[in-house]
């Protein structure tokens, strides 16, 4: 054994110390994995950061880096849930109108209205804010906070914008959106044409 260790430039003591440390490391990893499985039994979606906190609270002194390495090696990392809401679905069957604003110059208000939907978290739930903004003045001409992404919220915002703007000022007005399903549905298009 001494000749083999000498060939690689190590002492015999270094070799045995390595074996002892490796065995100790494997045993510690087994104990950590056992503990992870017991936590995951009760909390299947618990992530690495919370696991690290719980392990340290229980007296298992393990670094965050080591814990994540063990989780990764054993395919135990949990994917985080997305914390945002998707507000646009442009892959729908409804008619999509051409983009009329390429190279468009705004010289005055009420030439171009831009519509968008954003989400707001209210009491742990998402609410959807539909906005219609005048592109020249940046004034919000219509809005509606609605509990779903259905077209009713966008239609209420559009109705508010129409009622707030005299008919003679809406002549030649262009309405621009991300062409999501709320803006391309028949009811919304019908309201736009009034």
Report what the structure shows.
By secondary structure, the protein is α+β, with helices and mostly antiparallel strands. The chain folds into 2 domains: 72 residues, no CATH class; 82 residues. It has a 4-stranded mixed β-sheet with strand order 3-2-1-4. It is elongated and about 95 Å long. The model has no long low-confidence stretch (mean pLDDT 80). GO terms for molecular function: nucleic acid binding.
Rounded to the nearest angstrom, the radius of gyration is 31 Å
| pLDDT < 50 runs, ≥5 residues | none
Q: Strands of the largest sheet, in order across it?
A: 3-2-1-4
How much strand content do the residues show? 15-25%
Biggest sheet architecture: 4 strands, mixed
Number of helices: 7
What is the total domain count? 2
State the helical fraction: 40-55%
Mean pLDDT score, rounded? 80
Structural class, judged by helices and strands? alpha+beta
| Distance separating the two termini | 92 Å
The shape is: elongated
Number of strands: 4
Helix/strand order: HHHHEEEHEHH
